[in-house]
């Protein structure tokens, strides 16, 4: 193997490892909708970052049944949750989060 081929392999390995390193592990963890006896204002979607790094979700969108775009500077910290609610104030009044 010549020197150029060696450096191409090293660059490829580095690129694959780097892509794996920056991969976001954000998942939809919970969806609360249409629960009998509750108002629509108490519906929410909970996201969870199961990764080892904080994730900047600025500009990410939820669409179709819910239309929401995260504002600039929104960070989902590692091993933390983020809730998107139709009426955050009303949800906070009715549910206890710890």
Outline the structure in words.
This protein has 2 helices and 7 strands, in the order αβββββββα. The longest helix is centred in the N-terminal third of the chain and has 20 residues, at 3-22. The chain has helices at residues 3-22, 88-94; strands at residues 26-32, 44-49, 55-56, 61-62, 68-69, 75-76, 80-85. Helix content is 28%, strand content 28%. Strands 1-2-7 form a 3-stranded antiparallel sheet, with no helix packed on it. A two-stranded antiparallel sheet has the order 3-6. It has a two-stranded antiparallel sheet with strand order 4-5. A hairpin with a 5-residue loop joins β4 and β5 (68-69). Residues 5-22 have low confidence and may be disordered. The chain starts with a helix and ends with a helix. With 98 residues, the chain is an alpha+beta fold.
């Amino acid at each position: 193997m010549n020197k150029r081929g060696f450096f191409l392999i090293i660059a490829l390995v580095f690129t694959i490892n780097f892509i794996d390193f920056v991969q976001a592990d954000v998942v939809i963890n919970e969806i609360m909708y249409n629960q009998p006896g509750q108002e629509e204002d108490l519906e929410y979607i909970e996201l969870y970052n199961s990764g080892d790094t904080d994730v900047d979700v600025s500009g990410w969108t939820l669409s179709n049944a819910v239309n929401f775009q995260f504002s600039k500077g929104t960070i989902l910290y590692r091993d933390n949750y983020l809730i998107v609610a139709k009426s955050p104030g009303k949800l906070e009044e009715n549910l206890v989060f710890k």
